[in-house]
Amino acid sequence: MSGEDAPAQQQNAEEQKNQETKKPAEEPKAETKPDSPPASAATEAAAAPAAAEKAPEEEAFTYRSLVLTGYGGYDKVKLQVKKGKPALKAGEVMVRVKMCGLNFADLMARQGLYDRLPSPPVTPGMECSGIIEAVGEEVTDRKVGDKVLALSRCGMWQEVVVVPTTHTFIMPEGMSFEEAAALPVNYITAYMMLFDFGHLRPNQSVLVHMAAGGVGIAATQMCRTVKDVTVFGTASASKHEVITEGGVTHAIDYRTKDYVEEVRKISPKGLDIVLDPLGGSDTHKGYNLLKPMGKLISYGAANMLSGQKKNLIAVAKTWYHQFSVHSLSLIQGNRSVCGFHLGYLDTETELIAQAMDSILGLYRQGKVKPRIDSTFHLEQVGDAMRKMQERNNIGKIVLTTEPMKEEEKKEEAKKDDKKDDKKKDDKKKDDKKKEEGKKEEKKKEEGKKEEKKEEKKEEKKEEKKEEKKEEKKEEKKEEKKEEAKKAEN
Amino acid sequence: MSGEDAPAQQQNAEEQKNQETKKPAEEPKAETKPDSPPASAATEAAAAPAAAEKAPEEEAFTYRSLVLTGYGGYDKVKLQVKKGKPALKAGEVMVRVKMCGLNFADLMARQGLYDRLPSPPVTPGMECSGIIEAVGEEVTDRKVGDKVLALSRCGMWQEVVVVPTTHTFIMPEGMSFEEAAALPVNYITAYMMLFDFGHLRPNQSVLVHMAAGGVGIAATQMCRTVKDVTVFGTASASKHEVITEGGVTHAIDYRTKDYVEEVRKISPKGLDIVLDPLGGSDTHKGYNLLKPMGKLISYGAANMLSGQKKNLIAVAKTWYHQFSVHSLSLIQGNRSVCGFHLGYLDTETELIAQAMDSILGLYRQGKVKPRIDSTFHLEQVGDAMRKMQERNNIGKIVLTTEPMKEEEKKEEAKKDDKKDDKKKDDKKKDDKKKEEGKKEEKKKEEGKKEEKKEEKKEEKKEEKKEEKKEEKKEEKKEEKKEEAKKAEN
């Protein structure tokens, strides 16, 4: 489903919040009028609670929410109406959301490739901006009306979110809600990678993959805050002008050129820092591009994403080529290999707060500024995800909670035929990919018949690893026993 | 052989320099008088070249040099007399050496476990201090008489060394030759690990293994230059007072306690930085002690050293438990794994110079100061190595090129009986270790009979890896061919 179909498929997701009431999941569906714009309904409910006299305030409180209903294609994210005012615990705030940011992890999550998102049904989204609507007990640093940007493990793609106050940050003067929603994940990621793991210094060189993407642009801007840093940025040719203006020193079209060769031509000794969002064989390439004292920072596996549904060949290939390194190899190369993912840092509020403080400082000085590629309505989340996955964006894609206007809807309706074509296109694309996959398979089968052997080898290796782990555990236990004995003697 | 026997075994090592002369290796031996102190001979030669009228100056120039004659025990490092003035190329300087530093890499090298030392016969030693005696063409930043500390991949354990001027650094005012010889390797290692890879900041926590060793003491002092850094230091109990005075916050006796448990008691969340000179299973332990955004920095495999000769069991065990990590594991843990060894950085003169500049700055401010454990004559190099290997030192062990005085020699001679006992002890120790090794082997054989299976598995795995590498290479070639075809089209 592409986003514009969403309202027609609204479901009341109250059961997620109040499962103990044991209402059948279907029942509340009938309560929402498919033809009335749900956001205005929510607004009415908030503005005129008297209208819902018989129901308690919590019952009358509704808000629109994007919900991942199962793993799969773009249509698995549906726009639903949630009912009931979320309860506020001590230290929490409720935010009326204006904008939400889209991240690669959201695309991975939809395909079931991101283990930090709880099982569906669940609301995705790691960041948003909005206005504080209520504060819980013990909250002293935020008040109703504060404009904030917020960060969370998930659940940000909806009109109302409840988060610990420590996960919110006051928006600087002059920052738009789009910018505020675009900033947290990309800029914290770029900042911590370059300045904590990377320890970027003047005159160094950095490789930024997907330089026109959210993290890519954030990383390029961060590099520019340090003197004489050379940025190699990969992107398709059509984006080179923009990324070069944005600070990339050498733009490389990865579709037509071997980026390793291009880098070596300019920097024969290699690079100080490689930021790697791709995984698989690109991690190996990045490692081999490092200078002595160089740092490879791996922060994703975008190579796993191919097509809108989970592509097992792409996943297996990325997994199979997954980078692994021995400490002796690191010692002999004087190299560092780091892994970063903000999704696994959600409890590190102090680290996050420190990074955000520095980033907002850079924003105030005009040194960094999120570049917005486009804004989509919640109803259009499918289109938004498609654009990101097909790498047609330059900068950040954000979702706005503002409901679509009637005329916009009509226009969208007119495009329906085209959309149908698009769907057909999608199917064609997917079929083509499947076909290509099959062809590739066939070619491999015919050409070498090695693939399966390798897989079997891998399996065997995995089995052996497991065995070895068990054995190691045994050994450790024995060691401990021996040590315990020694301690007794 | 322990060091004091060295003079009796002096060999002329001229053949190393002038192999083309094709003198039999045994012949020059006779030229040196075993009963005359060789250093004074060298001094005579330098002071009174007129005495050697018939020989050209180059021929009359002799100097004492420690030479690794083959891999093995302490007696493999022999004191020899080299003949012939080394030639100076452009950009090089000749240093009359005062003191040389001992490093773990030297011990590894003697056992054949360090691939950065050329094959024997070769002079070991990575650092020294002394006075510039001659400068080559194009040298403008050094002059005869300058007091310098010098750094090189090897060859520093002798009275005269020739190095590129970029490998020398002017000694700060007030620095002793002992300190200057003790500083380069340990302090550059500690500095680059903590401040480049580690990016140490206030309030962080660091684990320093072998905290009473050369790098351990340097790292502790470096940590103290940053506000409120908590240092966990492992050392045997007898050294705790000294390392605590030196800046270790929590001293842990690794011989009687599990350091992982001790760290967790005080710092349940783990550590920001782990410096790991041990390798093997300790690298795994260090990795598991890391906080999010934590860095493990591996810089050696001291666990491979057990006994004075290569202990195959210790080597195999360390190798078998060698740490390897996948990028996805790093991503999920937000961790960094780094490898450092100065021996592989010898061509990075700029990086080294930057680090040395900062370190000498800290020395001038009184913030760092090498702690000298003891000074040995070149003749005593065996004793010096033994002390380091048996971890009986607190701080740096240095060698002085000053010849032993006659009375010292007599005293040493008196100790000879004791020395013989020591030798017997050595043999006993080695035998005991062998015995223990055998017992361990037997126990394992009897208990599980798994060890060999594992080894076989390892072998198979290695074979498979090799196969896979080959296959990958094939794949890469094919990929490139395909890409080349694409580029043509």
TrEMBL record, chains A, B:
Domain Enoyl reductase (ER) intervals: 72-399
Keywords assigned by UniProt? Answer: Oxidoreductase
Q: Compositional bias (Basic and acidic residues) spans?
A: 14-34, 403-489
Region listing for Disordered, in residue ranges: 1-56, 392-489
Q: Which domain of life is it from?
A: Eukaryota
- SMART domains of this UniProt entry? PKS_ER
Instruction: Output the GO biological process annotations, alphabetical, semicolon-separated.
Output: negative regulation of mitochondrial fusion
What InterPro entries does this protein map onto?
A: ADH-like_N, ER, GroES-like_sf, NAD(P)-bd_dom_sf, Quin_OxRdtase/zeta-crystal_CS, SV-ATPase_mito-regulator
Q: Where is the composition biased (Low complexity)?
A: 38-53
Q: What terms describe the molecular function in GO for this protein? A: oxidoreductase activity; zinc ion binding
Q: Name one GO cellular component term.
A: mitochondrial outer membrane
Per its UniProt record, what PROSITE patterns does this chain match?
QOR_ZETA_CRYSTAL
Similarity comment: family membership:
Belongs to the zinc-containing alcohol dehydrogenase family. Quinone oxidoreductase subfamily.
Q: What is this protein called?
A: Enoyl reductase (ER) domain-containing protein
Organism annotation: Alosa alosa
Lineage runs: Eukaryota, Metazoa, Chordata, Craniata, Vertebrata
